[in-house]
Amino acid sequence: MRPLLSGGRRVSVDGHPICGGCGAAVAPTAPDRWRHVPPGRPYPHGSKWLAPITLTELRRLETFEAFAARYPDAAVTPGEWLEGRRRLEDYHARLAAPLDPATNPLLELISILAGGRATPGPPRMPPGLARVLDLPGRRRELSSRLAWSVPTEAALGLIADHGPILDAGAGTGYWAALLRARGADVVATDATPPDGGGNPFHRERATWAPVERLPSVAAVRRHRDRTLLLCWPPPEDDAAGYAALRAYRGGTLLYVGGDAEGPTGTARLHRELDLNWTPTDDLALPSWPGIPDRLTVWRRNPSRRPHRQRDRCPECRRFVPTGHLGRCDACYASSPPALAVRAGGHRVEYPAAALEAMPAALRAALEASPNRL
After folding, report:
1. Is 232 left (phi over 0), alpha (psi -120 to 50) or beta?
2. Same domain for 125 and 171?
3. Within a domain: 31
4. 66 part of a folded domain
5. Is residue 218 located within the same domain as residue 353?
6. Do 178 and 290 belong to one domain?
7. Which domain holds residue 343?
8. Do 157 and 220 belong together in one domain?
9. Both 159 and 119 in a single domain?
10. Residues 179 and 110 placed together within one structural domain of the fold
């Protein structure tokens, strides 16, 4: 029994690997050994055989041969294994030491993972080394504790030049703390500061600087004399980005995040920027693989243009909510696809031609999915 692979990686449906023969959920029982998960049983996500590579496990596996036996599908060379272990040792030693915002520990930690000085863009390294370092896990670890975006001295200096600053949606207050350590005048606010609990983006309760409990729109109206800094506004929350920008009356916006195709800001926010703001300065920031990140300085245009672009159903051309993906509900109901599933709050449709072209195991898994519509 083998899991279904695509491009050398296991194919997952509903968050778990599937059998390459029948499409049923499969779970590992040992290195490179798998079994079917009985129908109705919860998937064993906590299995140690699915766990990412950790420093604790690397220390236990003293030789490359032991590592390769434990992770037979890792596709890691002896050199990558050795280098990854060295970098993780340095990384965890730095993470365990006192973290002072004056030194920008997030940039230091990213630099250790990158094997030197962190440069704009994602770390450049072989896939095997990235697997040993578990970069997605490092991103979750550091973003929860520090920040989603990596500040540099150039970025902090550019922001400080536009002070006084309002950091709305500040999260842990990491950027605000670094700016303050460099003499900038910053007020940090967040609708749910992590030190009060309930913040979905930062599980750590401590903040790096005082963060006032205040939604972004209210913060903009209270601190009218400050330049607005939006750092990684959520991609599905208009109140945190678009509404705050519409309430803002200043002439300069400092935006940290990706473009309309990236993981930050809603469709309305990016359309507002394209229509009524002009970029005047731009800095690429160190980032994680597949997640571009930049600091952009925007200047408000002299006259405001209204939003006339409307999203439409690609089939019937009816209007749909801004940022809607795929066909409208009416077209879906009148002409259902061969198969549809719910994924991440969106409906994913598969026409008959797509089903016929996919592996039989994947088709069987989608047809049996509890998220099938």
Report:
1. left
2. no
3. yes
4. no
5. no
6. yes
7. 329-367
8. yes
9. no
10. no
CATH of the domain at 258: 3.40.50.150
**How far, CA to CA in Å, does 50 sit from each of 39, 135, 317?**
20, 16, 45
Q: How many domains does the chain have?
A: 4
Q: Is the pTM of this model over 0.90?
A: no
Pairing of strands 33-36, 26-30: antiparallel
Q: How far apart are CA 245 and CA 230, in angstroms?
A: 9
pLDDT in tens, the chain (373 residues): 889 988 778 899 999 999 999 999 999 998 888 999 998 899 998 888 888 899 999 999 999 999 999 988 888 999 999 999 999 999 999 999 999 988 999 999 999 999 988 899 988 899 999 999 999 999 999 999 999 999 999 999 999 999 999 999 999 999 999 999 999 999 999 999 998 778 888 876 789 999 999 999 999 999 999 999 999 999 888 999 999 999 999 999 999 998 877 789 999 999 999 999 999 999 999 999 989 899 999 999 999 998 888 888 988 998 888 877 789 999 999 999 999 999 877 899 999 999 999 999 999 999 999 999 9
